[in-house]
Design a protein that fits this description.
This protein is of the alpha+beta class. The protein has two domains: about 45 residues; about 100 residues, Quinohemoprotein amine dehydrogenase alpha subunit, domain 2 (Lipocalin), CATH 2.40.128. The chain contains one helix and eight strands, in the order αββββββββ. The protein has an eight-stranded antiparallel β-barrel with strand order 1-2-3-4-5-6-7-8. A hairpin with a 6-residue loop joins strand 7 and strand 8. The protein is elongated and about 85 Å long. The N and C termini lie far apart (about 70 Å). About 10% of the residues have low confidence.
Length: about 150
């Protein structure tokens, strides 16, 4: 084989070696990103308790569950007087730790005829605390949400 042929082979081997090294590095980085996303997602799942403030503070329980790749949620709240109460459910529509957005509908509500109206949440996760707002379609006014992970 000529010197030129050996030189070309060395160049090709070097290119293949660099390509393989890059593929391995990219693969490891992708696994690391997936693990970080899985860990962040796991921190959201579970039962959270606290309040939603619609002018009157309402005791709230919100549960996040995994359904394949989808995160589902259910929320139930009641004021101490039981005048204002409701249940809602939906899905997390956007999650980029620490922030999540969720959208769903009321399945039950103290105000007749509001079942099926939409509610959106914008929440930020900080350790065992989740805070943000809920915006019910019927009023389009933000309500403060403050939740703590149930232990």
């Amino acid at each position: 084989m000529s010197a030129r042929g050996l030189s070309t082979m060395h160049v090709m081997r070097a290119i293949i070696g660099v390509g393989l090294a890059a593929a391995v590095a990219f693969g490891l980085a992708a696994v690391s990103v997936v693990r970080a996303q899985d860990q962040a997602r796991a921190k959201v799942l579970g039962v959270w308790e606290g309040t939603i403030n619609f002018g009157a503070s309402a005791r709230t329980v919100m549960e996040f569950t995994a359904d394949g790749e989808t995160i589902r949620w259910k929320c139930s709240y009641r004021t101490t007087s039981n005048i204002l109460w409701g249940d809602a459910e939906g899905t997390v529509t956007s999650f980029s730790a620490p922030n999540l957005e969720a959208s769903g509908v009321y399945t039950k509500h103290s105000v007749a005829g509001t079942e099926g109206t939409r509610v959106k949440f914008a929440l930020a996760l900080e350790g065992d605390q989740m805070k943000g707002t809920a915006i019910p379609e019927m009023t389009n006014l933000p309500a403060a949400v403050s939740l703590t992970r149930r232990k």
